[in-house]
Amino acid sequence: MADKWIENKESFPVIDVRDLLSNFLPMILHRAQQVNLNNGICVVQSFEPKPLYSALEDLGFEYFTEKVSDHEYRAYFYRTEIKTISYESGADMPFKPTAIVNYKAIDDILAARVVDFWELIWDNEDAAIDQKTKLLLSLSNAMGASRFRQATRELIKAYSLGATVKEFDELFSLFAWNQGIGHFSSEIGPSTVFGAYRHIKKREKEGLDRKSILNELLDFFGDKNPNVNTFFNKQIKCCEKRDI
């Protein structure tokens, strides 16, 4: 890491997200994409923002983090290279663990513990199981518990890492076998995860490339979809106010 830029970190524009309880990742990534070469930004969060590291590395940033207190971390990002983004969102992989912010609504320390656990499971550089296999296992576990929101996100992430239609075909056959035809017909068939799988299969058959399919998936089955988003639905909140 080049120490020279760290000496000038206090001059970086500051983005303070400590009071935000919604998905602030797109805003940070948008701001980061506007940063010129050899310039930086500072993100202030109430827990160490580890999921941001790989996302901004994908855009050509180095980082340095300071713990100011148990409720304030300052992550400094310095752009050493202009990289082409992997996805339209600017992230290195679809669906960063933005739900961690929900834990912050309860307690900052709890959110920090969840981040550490996420890092142990998903960001372990010495992992024995490769990331794509982990995602397929996590997808299967989510399906077994009828957590279709999570399963949709895991399926799209696995596809971004090279999972094939043939692998998904075998997985969904197993779901029908293990959970029964009735459950598959009434619960899995109408779910977002089955819709995403069918979309992949249809578009690949039509000859569309993987990156274009991923962009469509993120448009149809991304965070704009209330059945996939991990945050409270504001539309429901408005309805509740009207009912009152």
Description:
52% of the residues lie in helices and 11% in strands. It is an alpha+beta fold and 244 residues long. A four-stranded mixed sheet has the order 1-2-4-3, with helices on one face. Helix 6 runs antiparallel to helix 7 (148-160). It is globular and about 60 Å long.
In short:
The protein is built from twelve helices and four strands. It has 244 residues and is of the alpha+beta class.
Number of strands: 4
Strand arrangement across the biggest beta sheet = 1-2-4-3
Put simply, the count of helices is 12
**Beta-sheet strand percentage?**
5-15%
Shape, per Cα inertia axes: globular
Report the sheet with the most strands, covering strand number, pairing sense and barrel closure.
4 strands, mixed
Mean pLDDT: 88
Helix content bin: 40-55%
**CA gyration radius, whole angstroms:** 20 Å
How many individual domains? 2
End-to-end CA span: 56 Å
Structural class: alpha+beta
> What oligomeric state do the depicted chains represent?
single chain
SSE string, helices as H and strands as E: HEHEHEEHHHHHHHHH
Fold topology:
Blueprint: H1 3-6, E1 14-16, H2 25-33, E2 40-45, H3 50-57, E3 61-69, E4 72-79, H4 100-104, H5 108-122, H6 131-144, H7 148-160, H8 165-179, H9 181-188, H10 192-205, H11 210-220, H12 234-243
